[in-house]
Design brief:
Layout (H helix, E strand, L loop, with lengths): L11 H22 L8 H21 L9 H19 L9 E9 L4 E9 L9 E7 L18 H8 L2 E5 L10 H17 L1 E11 L1 H12 L6 E5 L5 H4 L9 H10 L13 E6 L7 H11 L6 E6 L14 H12 L18 H5 L4 E5 L7 H18 L4 E4 L5 H6 L1 E5 L6 H9 L2 E3 L3 E4 L2 E4 L4 E8 L2 E11 L18 E8 L5 E9 L5 E3 L22
Parallel strand pairs: 3-4, 3-5, 5-6, 6-7, 7-8, 9-10, 9-11, 11-16
Antiparallel strand pairs: 1-2, 2-4, 12-13, 13-14, 15-16, 15-17, 17-18, 18-19
Helix pairs in contact: 1-2, 1-3, 2-3
Amino acid sequence: MTGGPTRPVVHARTSRLCAAFVAARLGVLLLGALPLQAASDWRAWEAARVRLHVARIELLERVYHNSWRDLSIASANENATLNDALRNLSGNDAPAWPLGIQVDAYISSVDDSAQPFVRYLPPNWTPGKAAPLLIFLHGYSPVSDRFNLPFFPETLIRVADRTGACIVAPFGRGNTDFQGIGEQDVLRVMDEMQVRYGTDPSRVVLIGYSMGGLGAWCIAARHPQRFNAVMVLAGRGDFYVWHKLKPEELPPWQRRLVDVQFASAWTHQLKTTPILAVHGQDDSLVSFDQGQAIFDKVAPHNPNARFIADPLGDHGTPVEMLTNAVGTAWLDLNLTVTNARTVVSRVRVGETGSRLQNALQQPFILVGGTDGAMDFYAQRRLDARADEWLRFAHGKPRTALEPLLSAQQTDDLNLFVFGEPESSFLIRRIFRKNGVSWTPETFRIGARVFPRADHGLWFTAPNPFNTNRTAVVQCGIPWGATISDNHRYDRIPDVMVYTAEPDFYGANLAVGAGFVGADGTIAWSEPATTPAIKPKPVLFDFYETK
């Protein structure tokens, strides 16, 4: 269910030349035509397509150059798409949108990256006529990236052609479980489909399979007013059932982050949304009890929710719902009628419960904390952090060594500063302004003292240059040496002192953790770590989690 387009590759030298040529040509075009276009401007969409395909060429060179025998097809396809978008940009009139399948893109202000989505326009689509929208959230795939995109099942095309619906498959920043920046991507893509292709916001049907099923449960429960109906295929939505934990077995700071992000805390908002959930009783990847448990929390609130238990079904069996009589009738109905929506949620898109994690969903820059402009060690550390973000969120973030930061960057962006107070004026300024002191052996945060040797620190505070923005400092040992890339920023509160030892999830164990209040005081979590989250012999489900 996570298949993508053919993955041919261009030669490295061809890739570099093509990318450089396109970047230069795009710069000339945009210099005169795009002084900063609104999100609804077709030129911005075409420019995003160009930037996406330049990034795809770079991926071909960096990742796939040894993977395929014949590289000419990839080279031809990428260059044809680039030339098509560049031709459109050189003209004065908006292009006619091609029907069928196309890879589109938008530019995320978070990290200034081009993010893809796959859309389908049915044969009877016409501009100005509101069409229903089918959203398909993909399953976990360890090979997904901006070139090897997860598509929607082709069987949905028959449903779309019959009902006149458009289809979109958000990338969701890869394998983020469609939480945090992944949720932000899904709702942004929904908005893009409405603005670009006129889809009807009152007839949006969300479908999620496997990891996408988790995304469907969580996004629908947190934002029920956005969806006309939801179909969940082999999906989980309760963290505690997933990991066989009781809420009280998590430290309070982790419980806060879990409860904000997972559907199990928001099922009371799914009062009227039609829901069809399907799970195989022989599912060995997402166990049947996980699918049953989250539905059982929804059912008491929602007479329009239905659960189908397949007694012989495995993990893939629920996908048959997209072609059988029961599933297609349900889709046809909910794409053609408008259902009542009685709950308007106030949850912010992508909200995590952590100011630090939320700051990664607004425009930010990674900063190498150093007093010297030519600090090799600081640059190497900064490059490592940027590469971690690229692997996590599939976008190259903005970066700068501290002495090279511009006034506009410090004023406009959230700052993530990596280094030590002894060698960074910016870290010293943030610490002193927020009551943090240090010696070579310790950090003192308020009344608490923590060791520095073999420990790391995350600290969140207002940006000293613009208090409407956030500054985050990371000192000591790097974060997340044992956590998988796609969950690197799942479990970080506003303030955390941690060791190199991993918890059951692969994240670093905390010795102190808490959240910063509106007045700048820290509410510390007691305890910071519990015995239940210490590593267990089997850490993760192979396919679905980490």
